Amino acid sequence: MDRRIKFRHLEAFVAIARAKRLNRAAEQLNLTQSAISKTLKDLEDILGVTLILRGRAGVSLTDQGEIFLQYAEQSTGALRQGLNSIAKLDAGGAATLRVGVLPSIAASVVPLATERFRAQSPDTELSIQEGAHATLTDRLRAGELDLVVGRLGRPDTMVSLSFSQLYSETVVVVVAPDHPLIHATSLDQLSETLVIYPPKDAAVRPLLARAMIAAGLPLFQNRIESVSAAFGRAMALGPLRAAWFISRGVVAEELAQGTLIALPIDLRSTEGPVGIMARSEERPSAVARLFRQALIEVSAARPAG
């Protein structure tokens, strides 16, 4: 390895690649745009290749940049994790575990797995952080999270990450029991109603897009995009009586109690794997392995669907 390559070079490159804009990356690192641009140029000069192309619409990675990004993210993430572990040890603190959770999983297997984990490792400082798929996987690669639990994402969001499947799950459309479209059997019947729909960075969005295309339908015009389970419930049960597109696991309890009803619309094409994401080629800590096992055991006892 060229000894001229420093952590600041890798940190700047990763920030630019994620933010897609120099000014946004500079703000994140508390640098001026000229300073971060010079740092990137220094790295490219050392490597002898162009990593990032600049344009009016932002920046894009070259083929060399795509390859280098995988290893730069792994390197910066591993270093941050190591520094955090040393600081924690020096402070005499307990082990820590930071788990990112997609909203579709936060209300289902994770609470049960957390109960099991806490019984086995009560002194571990456990942090559960909810967010969108792209955000959580970026933070996982950066070493800010130890694990992420959720749906398998697009290939470009899974670079340098491993995925261990727990189970498969489908998307459903749920409404209040008194909704006028309670017996709707096709997506086109929802064209005039308000829908709560997953945003672009949600893992299920491409699956729903394919279902819409297969049905010959455009994207719903009367929609609000959100990954918030609390917001979705409020909108579905509130006066606007929205139709809510959501992973079945999020609303399993409401469906069982009858407070929400799944429309008889065939969305089997949205079935996808739910699992555990981690940084590839990195040995998980003892507490991470314990939490993994808790997730596996809880998922094995989970009803199918």
UniProtKB/TrEMBL annotation:
Belongs to the LysR transcriptional regulatory family. It comes from Flavimaricola marinus. This is Hca operon transcriptional activator. Residues 5-62 form the HTH lysR-type domain. Keywords: DNA-binding, Transcription, Transcription regulation. It comes from the Bacteria. PROSITE patterns: HTH_LYSR. GO terms for cellular component: cytosol. One of its GO terms (molecular function) is DNA-binding transcription factor activity. Pfam families: HTH_1, LysR_substrate. SUPFAM superfamilies: Periplasmic binding protein-like II, Winged helix' DNA-binding domain. GO terms for biological process: 3,4-dihydroxybenzoate catabolic process; positive regulation of DNA-templated transcription. The lineage of its organism: Bacteria, Pseudomonadati, Pseudomonadota, Alphaproteobacteria, Rhodobacterales. The keyword Transcription applies. The gene is hcaR_3.
